[in-house]
């Protein structure tokens, strides 16, 4: 599902909201999740899962085309751990 599909689904289930309002709501939710993660905080959505940040150390990688060694800097990457309810819904189909 892409962002526009999510906005459409939320708008269908909430006919009292305009499409512009739903787009703003979805944007605020994603912005807040991003802001919390950038501050190093964890975001938990009960029944869905939790987003957190994992640190990756600097390493030496390989260019797949040429095979030459390439320095890869240390970085922080988002990590998602699905919640129990989400896992159960996926495995009961």
List keywords for this structure.
93 residues, 5 strands, 2 domains, alpha+beta, 3-stranded antiparallel β-sheet, 3 helices, HU Protein, Chain A
CATH class of the largest domain: Few Secondary Structures
Contiguous runs where pLDDT drops below 50 for at least 5 residues:
none
Counting DSSP E segments of at least 2 residues, the number of strands comes to 5
What integer value in Å does the Rg equal? Answer: 19 Å
- For CATH, the homologous superfamily of the largest domain is named as IHF-like DNA-binding proteins
Strand/helix succession:
HHEEEEEH
Strand order of the largest sheet: 1-2-5
**Residues in helix, %:** 40-55%
CATH topology of the largest domain: HU Protein, Chain A
Major sheet summary line? 3 strands, antiparallel
Helix-and-strand structural type = alpha+beta
Provide the CATH architecture of the largest domain.
Irregular
Shape descriptor:
elongated
Protein name: Integration host factor subunit beta
Family: Belongs to the bacterial histone-like protein family.
Subunit structure: Heterodimer of an alpha and a beta chain.
Keywords: DNA recombination, DNA-binding, Transcription, Transcription regulation, Translation regulation
């Amino acid at each position: 599902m892409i962002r526009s599909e999510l906005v459409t689904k939320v708008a269908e289930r909430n006919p009292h909201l305009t499409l512009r309002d739903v787009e703003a709501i979805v944007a605020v939710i994603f912005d807040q999740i991003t802001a919390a993660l950038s501050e190093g905080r964890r975001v938990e959505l009960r029944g869905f899962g939790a987003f957190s940040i994992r640190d990756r150390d600097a390493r030496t990688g390989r260019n797949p085309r040429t095979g030459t060694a390439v320095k890869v800097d240390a970085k922080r990457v988002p990590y998602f751990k699905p919640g129990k309810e989400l896992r159960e819904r996926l495995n009961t189909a």
